[in-house]
Every structure is written in structure tokens, then in C-alpha cells.
Amino acid sequence: MTRRFKSILGVAVAIGLATGGLAAGVGQAQDMKFFRIGTGGTAGTYYPIGGLIANAISNPPGSRPCEEGGSCGVPGLVASALASNGSVANVNAINGGTLESGFAQSDVATWAQTGTGIWEGKPAASKLAAIANLYPESIHLVASAESGIKSVADLKGKRVSLDEPGSGTLVDARIILEGHGLAESDVQAEFLKPDQAADRMRDGAMDAFFFVGGFPAGAIAELASQHQITLVPIDGDSAAKIREKYPFFAADLVPAGTYEGVDGDVTTLSVGAQWVTSTDQPEDLVYGITKALWNDNTRKLLDSGHAKGKKIVKETALDGIGIPLHPGAERFYKEAGLLK
């Protein structure tokens, strides 16, 4: 990984401190369990969604029980959302045992677990297992309006950020370029997170950048409020051929008005955002976490906490998953009637 993970503890930790749960004696401390969720950059969608989920599944020692208006998470669990470089970095950290779980694009998770695609020639992350599919991640190709970029082909010779090494965005950006007959050497490639790329675009030093995530993305929304942008479509025959070659891509649409100044619908591609873990994690723990993810209290937090939270529904929890379910998650989905 190119950057140390930064730990951002969820609201649940503060609740535990306020109730004295973190200082209630050795007995309670021994019962406490920590569960980290690797997300992405703070300007993206993974990070706020991770914070919401960490809050929802946490139930530190000393918290009031759910039926008394307290936490409805896993008893004794303190979950935290960590900012990271994204999908590839999260998978590597889970595989290396330095993270309990993380978010990853469906393509990255499948390649890693099977040792194919970008993982070909490297040891497969054979213990990688899914907790849930969360929501579709749209591929954003953001261009400065003054750059004149109207299509992927127009990127040739332009200053384009493909995102940081370790991110799923970089993987997909390379696929998009290749699918439109461009090599990475055909653009002036830079490797920045979207907030950094947006800063460069404001300064007139960046023509376009890729971002894969749920809309609206904070960095893009902020940029659009200060600088005239174009959301470049990824469509037509080239996009169809990409979907045919890589079935984990789906056709997608960013609705008009999602970002200031983008007045029409923009056709693009998407991949699934998935929550993954390791089979080394205990079955009962992951069962409890999966159950907490889909309770009514979590539903309220997701619906009110982020625009993409409303897309995280139990009915699509198994969509597009190309890796095995964790046994604890599998047990929950069977009990819930979603899996035979």
C-alpha cells in the first residue's frame, strides 16, 4: 500500500466512551471486539458509507440495549471506518491480516479471489469472502468544460488523472482507455485521488479525471459548484464491447442535475460496491454483523445518512457477487429466505 491507513472511529466509539463502556473494567474490556472497515478516500462514497455502517453495527460494552433506544448492533463490538487507497488496497490488507473487512469493487474482488485479471500471476486471495453487495458504483469521467473533452477518445494527449495505485478506479480507467483504443501512454497520466485531481482542475492544471463511486460524489459536487465541468459519457459500441468482455460492468445512468451544470442524463458504466472480509473471521461474528446490517435501525441510518444509502437494500445484497459468501453471512441469508 502506498499510504498508511488513517483510523477514523465511528460515532459508536464516542457512545462507548460517554457511557463508560471503554473504561468499565477488565471484564468488559475482554468482551470488547474491534472490527475495522477499509473504505476509500475521504472525498469519495466508500468513506461516509463505511462510517454509517460502522456506527450501525457497533454496540460497545455499556451501551443501552436496542429495545431501550440504544444500539442495535453486535453486543461488545466497536467498528471503525478507515480511510484507504480503495479496493485493491483493502483486499491486500484483508489478505494480509491487517484489516478485518473492507469495501471493494465487484471486479477487483472477483479477480483477487480467483487469481485472474489484474491478479493473474500473483497468489489468489483465496480466503476473501463476501458479506454483502451494497450499491452500484458509477464510473465518472469528469472533464473541465474548457478542455473540449466530449468523449473518451478526446482524452488523447490530455492531462488525465487515473486515480492512485491501489484503487479500483485505476484498474477500471485502464480498461476504459483500452476499450476505446487508447493506451495509458496516449494521455498525460497522473495518479491522484479525486479531491486532489479536482484541486488541480480548479487551478487549470488538469483536463480530466476518473472516479468510480456512488453519486453524488462529494469531491465532484464541490468542484462543479466552483468550476464548469462536463461529465463525459461512456457509451456506444465501445462500452458494449467492454461489457461483453468484462461482465461485471453494467450499463448505468447519472441523472441530470446530479452535479451542478450537468443538465442532461449521462450514460456510463458501473460496478458493484461490495463489503468483503476473510474466512478467518469467526462465523458467529460475521453472522451478527450481517444481521445488524439489515435491521430496521440500520435502515434508518442508511436512508438519512447518505444519498447512496437508500440503494443499500437487502433485496440486492447478493447481486453480482462473484466470490464465496462468508459462512456467517451465508447463514443469515438462508435464514432470511434470500438464499436456498
Number of strands: 11
CATH superfamily of the largest domain: Periplasmic binding protein-like II
**Integer tally of domains:** 2
Structural class: alpha/beta
Q: What percent strand?
A: 15-25%
Instruction: Work out the radius of gyration.
Output: 20 Å
CATH topology of the largest domain: D-Maltodextrin-Binding Protein, domain 2
| DSSP summary: helix tally | 12
Main sheet summary: 11 strands, mixed
Query: What is the string of SSEs from the N terminus onward?
Result: EHHEHEHEHEEHEHEHEHEEHHH
* CATH C-level name of the largest domain: Alpha Beta
In short:
This protein has 340 residues and is of the alpha/beta class.
Summarize this structure as a short list of keywords or feature phrases.
340 residues, alpha/beta, D-Maltodextrin-Binding Protein, domain 2, 2 domains, eleven-stranded mixed sheet, 11 strands, 21% strand
Could you explain how this protein is built, in words?
- The chain is an alpha/beta fold and 340 residues long.
- The protein folds into 2 domains: 6-135 and 273-335, D-Maltodextrin-Binding Protein, domain 2, CATH 3.40.190.10; 137-271, Periplasmic binding protein-like II (D-Maltodextrin-Binding Protein, domain 2), CATH 3.40.190.
- Helices cover 33% and strands 21% of the residues.
- The chain has 12 helices and 11 strands.
- The chain has helices at 11-18, 26-31, 46-57, 87-96, 106-114, 168-179, 194-202, 218-224, 236-245, 283-293, 296-305, 327-335; strands at 6-9, 33-38, 77-83, 101-105, 128-144, 159-161, 188-190, 208-213, 229-231, 250-254, 266-278.
- Strands 1, 2, 3, 4, 5, 6, 7, 8, 9, 10 and 11 form an 11-stranded mixed β-sheet that branches.
- Helix 6 links the parallel strand 6 and strand 7 (188-190).
- Helix 3 (46-57) runs antiparallel to helix 11 (296-305) and helix 10 (283-293) packs across helix 12.
